[in-house]
Design a protein that fits this description.
The chain is of the alpha/beta class. It contains 31 helices and 28 strands.
């Protein structure tokens, strides 16, 4: 082995004559070769090295026999190679001769040799590796500046000054080096000494020794010393700054800061948090604009005290930035048959929604890339709107995420808070995307109709406009993130119970799909396929080995007598309640009391039924007409009752907790009847001498809407004429002052309510015929529809010529 010793014991030949004489070499091309580690000799320098490699020791023995013998010295590229080959050596080195050998105590068999470097040479080929290295070496000519070259002399003066400054700043270089440089008068020898002894890297020295032009080597050396001086000055500046205003609590931080700054300048990665952020950022596929912001913000992080509040705010922001799935998408499964199978497996019915999802998958399959639609599923509670999102995500193999918007009153919940606020965080949209881990999840916006509007904290519903606009959401701007994020590949599915509370601009951005309630037959199927197996598992019967079986009639009794809803949420609760009761009885008695649940056992397990089915009450009474109404839990039948009582005022009284619209419908119906008394063959004076009272039973239940218009008009007409209303008939429709019948909504729910009550004939507006055509045949079975255009058509069908039993005879007094 060979290595350079401490420069403090080095000497130098100060040659004041012609430097060419010193470097003039007259040797054969085949010379011995000494391989050094981490050490370059430059022409003219005398330097001691420690030699311990066996081949190098044999070379010294050989040279001792010929003190004037010349050999070549080449530095190896990798210090860890013990037996370097020709490819492992730098090609440029120097000739040298052995001046002296000293055996130093404690060197473990190594010796110290003092060598005199001569002219430069180039390795062409190694011919022998034993007993020591020999090879073909070519002498390299030198190009020296003229003796009176002012540029060279001035540059050397500058180099000497900078080296002295470097020695003062660098504690690793002995002070003796400064004395040697000051005492060496020959500029070329001084340059070689500086190049040999300053702690430049081996690569830098290899580049220096290659140049034949001494002037060029001088300027290269100046550039290197200037570079290292800048680093030393920076280090000293950092040390000076970190020494100012230190106290015991800050000492540890400033020391770490000093290390971090040095590492920053040397390309280090800093703290573990910074390293983690950098590693994550390197894997991101984000746009160049986002990358530029990340680089800018992570630079700010390095300048902050890790104990300061701003540090954690900045760190959280950067973590949010790298945790978002920029341009990361899951691969869609576009198999239509598989999607159909999953949707049918998880949800019974809902044909419209399933058809729309399959259409989307079909177009996506044909086109390959498509902006996702914004769907809004609206309908009564418990029909499976929210759970449908999970099935869609499973069908397309996308990630699933859900956000509940019910009661949302702060705009910042959608757009995020600006980072200037304490506790700032991104909005729910960005947080959910981060949670999903992909930029194209199925995103459920639950209860969008219950978002608060125009509060002191802004307007959250307006903030949703950008999220749900397919033309804008490819550049959604979150205040916390402060960069645009692409939401165009997200499949947004909103759910709502009532479209009337959703602002029109927001509603306009969504594709509305109605999810209607279930008929009893559908609820029975849903209970058999989904609810009963789920609740058997929840209550432990699946694990007990013995589990009850529900008869179809038992499920029907629970549906009809223990629930009143369009969906199946209450049905699920009642099934759970029944099974809990069975679990208690089994645990108490040690056996299952009922293996098959029939209607007879339902009351024992669930108690008395809280509801009764709305049943048609017959047509024995005049003035009582069956109407159809829509509620948030489905359709219902209601009864409009009209009675006349003697009174001079002839006033109209309305009772039954009616809303303003329904009251107006009653007034319009009465005015129409008054205007067409001749059609009914009624004395018009009856309105002056009799008061009219219209009542809608179940007065505790609020009722509103225009759809009872024709029902009220028929009820008044029946009461005035005492004619019977056609049996098993119900009606729905709005009327105008001229008697025209207008279409109404909620037709499917109203039909289900009519069927439950045993109604066989339904009267409705001619324009509602198109709604009937869209309803599956199973819903229409057993019901006849009669379409009308005006109130007269309603009376012609609904009022029979037969009067009720014991009709009231109205006594009309002659007016004076």
């Amino acid at each position: 082995m060979s290595r350079k010793m401490n420069p403090s014991i080095q000497t130098i030949t100060d040659f004041n004559g012609d430097v060419n004489e010193l470097f003039k070499i007259d040797v054969n091309s085949d010379v011995p070769i000494l391989c050094t580690r981490n050490l370059f000799f430059f022409p003219g320098v005398v330097s001691p090295i420690i030699i311990g490699r066996p081949a190098s020791l044999k070379l010294l023995e050989y040279q001792q026999k010929d003190p004037e013998g010349i050999f070549a010295v080449f530095c190896q590229k990798d210090v860890n190679v013990d037996l370097p080959q020709e490819k492992d050596l730098y090609k440029t080195g120097v000739y040298a001769k052995l001046l002296r050998i000293m055996e130093m105590p404690g060197n473990g068999g190594s010796v110290t040799a003092i060598l005199q470097a001569l002219g430069r040479c180039e390795l062409e080929q190694i011919t022998h590796y034993t007993p020591f290295y020999r090879g073909i070496v070519k002498h390299l000519e030198e190009v020296y500046p003229l003796e009176k070259n002012k540029e060279f002399r001035t540059a050397m003066q500058d180099l000497r000054q900078k080296v002295v400054e470097y020695i003062h700043l660098n504690d690793e270089v002995p002070n003796e080096t400064e004395f040697v440089i000051r005492d060496t008068t020959n500029d070329i020898i001084c340059l070689s000494f500086i190049q040999t002894n300053l702690p430049f890297t081996v690569t830098d020295k290899a580049n220096l020794i290659k140049g034949a032009d001494t002037m060029e080597r001088l300027f290269r050396t100046l550039r290197l010393i200037n570079r290292d001086l800048e680093l030393l000055r920076l280090k000293q500046s950092i040390q000076t700054k970190t020494r100012q205003d230190l106290d015991e609590q800050q000492r540890e931080y400033f020391l770490k800061q000093q290390i971090k700054n040095i590492e920053e300048e040397l390309g280090g990665e800093g703290t573990p948090e910074r390293k983690e952020l950098t590693e994550k950022a390197a894997k991101k596929k984000w746009p160049e604009s986002v990358k530029a912001i990340f680089d800018k913000e992570i630079t700010k992080l390095d300048l902050l005290n890790s104990q300061s509040p701003e540090y954690s705010v900045q760190l959280n922001y950067l973590q949010t930035l790298v945790d978002l799935p920029w341009a990361e998408y899951t691969k869609d499964d576009l198999d239509l048959k598989r999607a159909q199978r999953i949707l049918d497996r998880d949800h019974y019915g809902m044909e419209k929604v399933k058809e729309r999802i399959l259409e989307y998958i079909s177009v996506l399959k044909l086109r390959g890339d498509l902006k996702s639609p914004i769907l809004c599923l609206y309908g009564p509670p418990g029909v499976g709107k929210t759970s449908l999102g999970k099935s869609i995500a499973a069908a397309m193999k996308r990630k699933y995420v859900r956000v509940s918007l019910g009661g949302l009153h702060d705009e910042s919940e959608i757009r995020g808070h600006r980072r200037t606020y304490v506790g700032a965080m991104p909005g729910r949209i960005i947080k959910s995307i981060q949670k999903a881990g992909s930029s194209n999840p199925v995103f459920i916006l639950d209860e969008i109709d219950k978002v608060t509007q125009n509060t002191i904290n802004g307007d959250p519903s307006s903030a949703m406009l950008e999220v749900l606009d397919p033309e804008q959401n490819n550049a959604f701007h979150d205040n916390y993130l402060d960069v645009d994020y692409d939401l165009s590949k997200v499949l947004f599915i909103a759910t709502a119970n009532d479209l009337n509370t959703i602002p029109r601009p927001l509603l306009d951005r969504m594709e509305i799909i109605e999810v209607t309630g279930y008929i009893t037959e559908e609820k029975i199927e849903i209970a058999k396929r989904h609810l009963v197996p789920k609740e058997l598992e929840n209550t432990g019967f699946d694990m007990s080995g013995e589990k009850p079986v529900f008869a179809k009639a038992a499920l029907e009794k629970i549906i009809e007598s223990y629930t009143r809803e369009s969906g199946v949420r209450q049905l699920e609760k009642q099934i759970n309640k029944l099974l809990r009761k069975l679990a208690f009885l089994k645990a108490k008695d040690g056996k299952l009391p009922y293996k098959k649940i029939t209607p007879a056992e339902i009351e024992d397990l669930l108690g008395k039924p809280p509801f009764y089915r709305d049943i048609y009450q017959g047509n024995a009474y005049a003035g009582v007409v069956t109407g159809l109404a829509w509620t948030s839990v489905g359709g219902e039948i209601l009864f409009i009752e009209t009675s006349l009582s003697k009174g001079k005022a002839g006033k109209l009284t309305l009772t039954g907790n009616l809303g303003d619209v329904m009251k107006e419908s009653a007034v319009i119906a009465l005015e129409y009847v008054k205007a067409h008394v001749d059609k009914l063959r009624v004395d018009y004076r009856i309105f002056d001498q009799y008061n009219i009272h219209i009542h809608v039973p179940e007065g505790a239940t609020p009722k509103d809407g225009p759809s009872a218009g024709i029902t009220i008009a028929t009820s008044i007409a029946s009461a005035l004429t005492q004619r019977k209303v056609r049996k098993n008939t119900a009606m729905t429709g709005e009327i105008t002052l001229r008697g025209k019948v207008l279409p109404v909504g909620g037709i499917k729910e109203k039909i289900l309510a009519a069927k439950r009550a045993g109604i066989t004939d339904i009267v409705m507006c001619q324009d509602n015929k198109k709604d009937i055509s869209e309803i599956p045949a199973i819903y229409l079975k057993g019901v006849n529809f009669h379409y009308v255009e005006n109130v007269q058509d309603v009376w012609d069908f609904a009022l029979t010529d037969e009067q009720v039993k014991n009709p009231i005879r109205f006594e009309i007094e002659e007016q004076k």
